[in-house]
Amino acid sequence: MTTDSNTVSGTTSEIDQDAKYSIDIKGYDASGRSFPYAVYTRMSERGMAQLGGTATDVPKSLGTPSEMMKIVASICSKEPDYLLPGTPISEAVFRLLIANGNRPMSLVDVQTGLASAWASVIYLKNLSDEVVQRMLDTPNEYYIRRVA
Question: Which of 93, 98, 94 is nearest to 67 (CA)?
């Protein structure tokens, strides 16, 4: 395990470069929210059409999350408005994980994905190790969790 000790706001923080993160789908659903619906609402019009729906007409059966994430990966994530620069980092990471089929991503993978999506932005958000790992390790509404 590789760690760097850095001082952040007067506290010592360990950066774990080997940590990986994914969405806790069971936790998401157990909270009373629907993970399939969360994925659907982040799909492009073309992606929704693959499921027989639109932004205003959700199909009765959304299919499995893995099927939906394949559509996101192959269609939606390729659209220019999938990961806009104004997207909050936690929402952007959620979208990255969905587009990655919710396979665990390391801190570097997350930073690289965000930097690539936002490469044209003049004032890039702070994507430092400390900022991104702190966001990932803090309980969040997206159920992004460190995996063992």
Answer: 98
